[in-house]
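Quick log. Single chain, no ligands specified.
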Amino acid sequence: MSRRVILGLTGNIATGKSAVMRLAAERGALTIDADRVVHELLDRDPAIQGAVAEAFGPGVRRADGRIDRAALGRVVFGDADKLRQLEGLLHPATRTEIARRVAAADAPVVMIEAIKLLEGPLAAICDQIWVTTCARATQIERLRVCRGMDEESAAARVDAQSPQADKIARADVVIRTDGLMADTQAQFEAAWRSIPQPEG
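-> predicted structure:
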């Protein structure tokens, strides 16, 4: 490949995005987790920290300047206006940092994972959109086993997200993760072979 190929990965909670990211990394891709970028900005970027504290109160900031994500979550959770305000602060900085990492990448393939990939401008820079999906019951079971949630809390998290069908409708690649890891890997390998070859 003579130029970088950018893959966008999305999918609802507990549908197997992390497994696909690991497989891509094993194939030599640079993998960028948008959530992790947000966490790094909240931990390390003084301008972001100041803006968030100004918007949501000094109680969301620790003594060392870092944002207390749990405290911030309590402020914005369930308040759509405040959540939009927070996203307005964080998303542009996150996109800038992701663009910087993509531009600096030596890897021929970059995979960007973002839960709201399709709702923002990041999707436009991707050569392909990959979506992971599985049954609702599988999502709930994974949240119970892997994150220790009770069934009611897990179901609420799953049902709060936009329908999986909306993401699948815009996907170039769909990976269904209800089965064994070997099944997921086989789908990944087929999808990897479908990555567009750059011209020239």
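Residues 80-104 form the longest helix (25 residues).
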